[in-house]
């Protein structure tokens, strides 16, 4: 039964390999890809229910008991992430089918997407920190190719930067692992957690934690986000949306795991630094969003703002704040994917990227325009849409902990989010129509379907908060009581 | 699901239906359909009047997010009933008016959809007991107001006005949300009734005052108080029915509602008193003062709305002292301020609604609202003139109109309040009636302007787009209905007082036992010696004088420099923040890879290095010289030499050569440490990559010498050395960390466990085979990626694929 845990990683990777042999059968490729992702979503949902029923479950590869072998761990938090990312991928694929073009489809793009998803899911599920590094590599390698795929000059330039920066990141990760192994002398995350707690997280261990912090900050775009606006805007829209929804979130996930499970014992150092970084990220992200008039860049800076906002929850660290982070993470994966698909569609329809060159789109594409409006409201956190509950929980947590500066920054950032997205809405969707009905490009039906589906997800995450909160609170419970996780992994060995 | 929930939901359901229904219904009827929805709701709400006036409250809870205490609780008491009646009543009249006002060529279903959305949201605000749900509806009113202001979104001014209102009101809403969360933290409940129920528990809390200020920010932005009022004049870009409905009668009163609703919570606090009263009074003055200089009738009405909202706000502030003083026969008199507030709120909705509709008629029939072009319309539009006359005089506080009654009560309240000796009222309290009186003079002046400049004087036909004529009957029904109330309330004020105002007083002063005492008998005549009467008389005298001399003193408006006005501050603030952000972002987002590396390493240095330095964990245990072999020293020296050499290499070939030296030395290290298979792997990798580099580099140009300022070079050298030092020192410290035994002892038995004698092999192939498998996947991706990159070159020119 436990073998099911590995499926979200294995199925996409195997399918990706199979697709390589079906290069010229594009329709078959599409069918297989989307079926795979739907299957993974269903499996993840099943896994979520299983974890609810039976508590944390694990899979020791080759039967080597922890802490000696590698293992995958399914707790509510990780499975929630896997489920959300799989669902979002389904809709991004749906969008890709109608827009991405045969040139890319011929070039194994679906294989790369599946490999990316495999790496992402692996990163969520693994319980071994070296394996996390390896899963990161799978994910990053796939993302390198996806950024560069298409071979346009700007893509190559940005992908080179992206690759080099991430190589540096990986090197620091390796260094961190070396430090980690030479101090706690183990790689199993639960075992690390146990040993760190035993040693009382002395300054040496905190130093190691801080090296890990730098690594994951680079992945999450926490302060070290400068690579993001450039490289996220060059690949095809569907890929952008996937990146926006998944990649930084893996970094955020790793940060939350690291500082709730493994290194939670010196919050006056680590969590203060996280708080400062989160605040700085919000400020810089807001400035970037204010400065830009390019729809893609505005959307990219909105990712940065959200990363800062989610990590307020981690920095504050109370139970409701962490629950808020988890909730907001789920919301943000859905809403950011939708936002990127929408602005990508604007670029596709008009051939323009600057908001000043677009106008009156809502007359041509009313439903499209209103879904953008709805997404904007959700990202601002207006109830009953998806952003609200997470925002309230993070706000509540900040008040409980007395972190008023972070509360102010977080709430004020909603206003900048509103301002930047409203800028797009007012100048590109409202205003005089400049596209005549004859010149109007049709909006592909499959894309529209993915917009509607993601918008419905957003509404469901908001209205169905009570149902979702059951899972979120369970995930939070494990995050704030790491002993549950540690016992589940190590008790039998 | 009970009926009260249905009251909120019905408008939403129809708002959702309108975009669907309009395909089936002729444009002629869509307005009537919406009207019937609103009117039925109004009628339905009136049936609650007897029950509510008997002191009953109707509450219903539908659980939404019980684990966070967020319930969908409707709560209908006196205060919410007044607002609900206004929302549906004025709403019905406005819809009726709009049927004739809006051209059939407009996208009417959008208009009615937004309007219903607003109506539902507004009902939600006044009927919700749960703070979070209230907040949700509150933001929804901002959103629907945005959509209605931007209804003619092809006009630039509409978009700008919509943006301004959205930004300001949502900002207030967010601050209010923070305040609500603080209330939640203090009281552990989100229900307003429960919070009121144990106010004592939270008043001493440190968060009490911050929560108060944050919530007031929300109320002030929504109710257009100084200095946030600037969105309201710009909101006049909306179609006039919208201005009449949202921006005078209902939405802008949401802030007033909130202040009234929370008076039992915050009323005892001096800060609350001074903020609400002070800001209200100043807004009253500032709005009326600025209204006088307006030339656009609608802008004039907007400023007058700002001013009147300030009046109501200040009355609520004055009423809040009664909460501080507690219940006794002497304090009852201070509750009359709150009574006057609600009374004036109703009166204001009647006369201001009528006035907006009057301006709409003029705009509609003449094509302009500019008072410089208008004049002498009395003979052309006698019916419209009557509306203007009655509406303005009521606003100016003249009998026999309802405004007179509430204005007199306002004066009385200002006179009472200055006699108190709490909250330092004894020192500056005397200013309150003075400011109130001055503001009333300006109010009187602009009321005269509305009537005088529009309907008296000479008609200037050549300036008008259309020939003046009376409005169609359909547009007159609604304002006349309101006018009937304006006059009717003057003659029968106590009917309103008894059935409508009294229960509302019970909501504002729940701790005061009987509401009978809280409800004064409203008189029009307080005797010849009553000071409020003389205040009114002097207002009239001075007002007429000022109106006559308008030209003489109008230049004072130019005294305030234009670029210091709040509007330009707002606009400059936005453009400054945009350009400042642009500068800052441009400064660090250089697109230069070296800079980006510098950021990463600086972060590493500051966080890791900084922390490492200030803790005292560095330890260093020199290896004893015996165990050190000669090869090892030689290898280390070679490695140091080659890596330093790379930095100074002038050609690519040298670089490749030196880095392969480095790689091979590592391989030798593996041999020295008895790991022959690792050494082999390293040798293979090193050889292959060196050959590959050599092949590729032949095709590349020579390295260009980078020309950089000296300080950048020094900076980079410093950062590299510091990072290297940090990594090394932390590494030494980590090596000496001896608290745990390693898990690798387990692998010593590899032969027993996995059947392999070589521990490295067993780890790669068995213990951690999963990692190895994924590394193979990484290689697979890399190979496939290189293949696609070579094959898929961008087509020349613009590609259209997304």
From TrEMBL, chain A:
<feature type="transmembrane region" description="Helical">
    <location>
        <begin position="443"/>
        <end position="465"/>
    </location>
</feature>
<feature type="transmembrane region" description="Helical">
    <location>
        <begin position="162"/>
        <end position="184"/>
    </location>
</feature>
<dbReference type="InterPro" id="IPR001750">
    <property type="entry name" value="ND/Mrp_TM"/>
</dbReference>
<dbReference type="InterPro" id="IPR050586">
    <property type="entry name" value="CPA3_Na-H_Antiporter_D"/>
</dbReference>
<feature type="transmembrane region" description="Helical">
    <location>
        <begin position="241"/>
        <end position="263"/>
    </location>
</feature>
<feature type="domain" description="NADH:quinone oxidoreductase/Mrp antiporter transmembrane">
    <location>
        <begin position="128"/>
        <end position="414"/>
    </location>
</feature>
<keyword id="KW-0812">Transmembrane</keyword>
<keyword id="KW-0813">Transport</keyword>
<dbReference type="GO" id="GO:0005886">
    <property type="term" value="C:plasma membrane"/>
</dbReference>
<feature type="transmembrane region" description="Helical">
    <location>
        <begin position="401"/>
        <end position="422"/>
    </location>
</feature>
<feature type="transmembrane region" description="Helical">
    <location>
        <begin position="31"/>
        <end position="48"/>
    </location>
</feature>
<keyword id="KW-0472">Membrane</keyword>
<feature type="transmembrane region" description="Helical">
    <location>
        <begin position="298"/>
        <end position="316"/>
    </location>
</feature>
<keyword id="KW-1003">Cell membrane</keyword>
<feature type="transmembrane region" description="Helical">
    <location>
        <begin position="204"/>
        <end position="229"/>
    </location>
</feature>
<feature type="transmembrane region" description="Helical">
    <location>
        <begin position="107"/>
        <end position="124"/>
    </location>
</feature>
<feature type="transmembrane region" description="Helical">
    <location>
        <begin position="269"/>
        <end position="291"/>
    </location>
</feature>
<feature type="transmembrane region" description="Helical">
    <location>
        <begin position="68"/>
        <end position="95"/>
    </location>
</feature>
<feature type="transmembrane region" description="Helical">
    <location>
        <begin position="370"/>
        <end position="389"/>
    </location>
</feature>
<keyword id="KW-0050">Antiport</keyword>
<feature type="transmembrane region" description="Helical">
    <location>
        <begin position="328"/>
        <end position="349"/>
    </location>
</feature>
<dbReference type="GO" id="GO:0008137">
    <property type="term" value="F:NADH dehydrogenase (ubiquinone) activity"/>
</dbReference>
Automatic annotation (TrEMBL), chain B:
<dbReference type="InterPro" id="IPR025383">
    <property type="entry name" value="MrpA_C/MbhD"/>
</dbReference>
<comment type="similarity">
    <text>Belongs to the CPA3 antiporters (TC 2.A.63) subunit A family.</text>
</comment>
<feature type="transmembrane region" description="Helical">
    <location>
        <begin position="165"/>
        <end position="184"/>
    </location>
</feature>
<feature type="domain" description="MrpA C-terminal/MbhE">
    <location>
        <begin position="713"/>
        <end position="791"/>
    </location>
</feature>
<dbReference type="GO" id="GO:0015297">
    <property type="term" value="F:antiporter activity"/>
</dbReference>
<feature type="transmembrane region" description="Helical">
    <location>
        <begin position="596"/>
        <end position="613"/>
    </location>
</feature>
<dbReference type="GO" id="GO:0005886">
    <property type="term" value="C:plasma membrane"/>
</dbReference>
<dbReference type="Pfam" id="PF20501">
    <property type="entry name" value="MbhE"/>
</dbReference>
<dbReference type="InterPro" id="IPR050616">
    <property type="entry name" value="CPA3_Na-H_Antiporter_A"/>
</dbReference>
<keyword id="KW-0813">Transport</keyword>
<keyword id="KW-0812">Transmembrane</keyword>
<feature type="transmembrane region" description="Helical">
    <location>
        <begin position="29"/>
        <end position="49"/>
    </location>
</feature>
<dbReference type="InterPro" id="IPR046806">
    <property type="entry name" value="MrpA_C/MbhE"/>
</dbReference>
<feature type="transmembrane region" description="Helical">
    <location>
        <begin position="299"/>
        <end position="325"/>
    </location>
</feature>
<keyword id="KW-1003">Cell membrane</keyword>
<feature type="transmembrane region" description="Helical">
    <location>
        <begin position="133"/>
        <end position="153"/>
    </location>
</feature>
<dbReference type="GO" id="GO:0006814">
    <property type="term" value="P:sodium ion transport"/>
</dbReference>
<feature type="transmembrane region" description="Helical">
    <location>
        <begin position="533"/>
        <end position="550"/>
    </location>
</feature>
<feature type="transmembrane region" description="Helical">
    <location>
        <begin position="473"/>
        <end position="492"/>
    </location>
</feature>
<feature type="domain" description="NADH:quinone oxidoreductase/Mrp antiporter transmembrane">
    <location>
        <begin position="128"/>
        <end position="427"/>
    </location>
</feature>
<feature type="transmembrane region" description="Helical">
    <location>
        <begin position="374"/>
        <end position="396"/>
    </location>
</feature>
<feature type="transmembrane region" description="Helical">
    <location>
        <begin position="272"/>
        <end position="292"/>
    </location>
</feature>
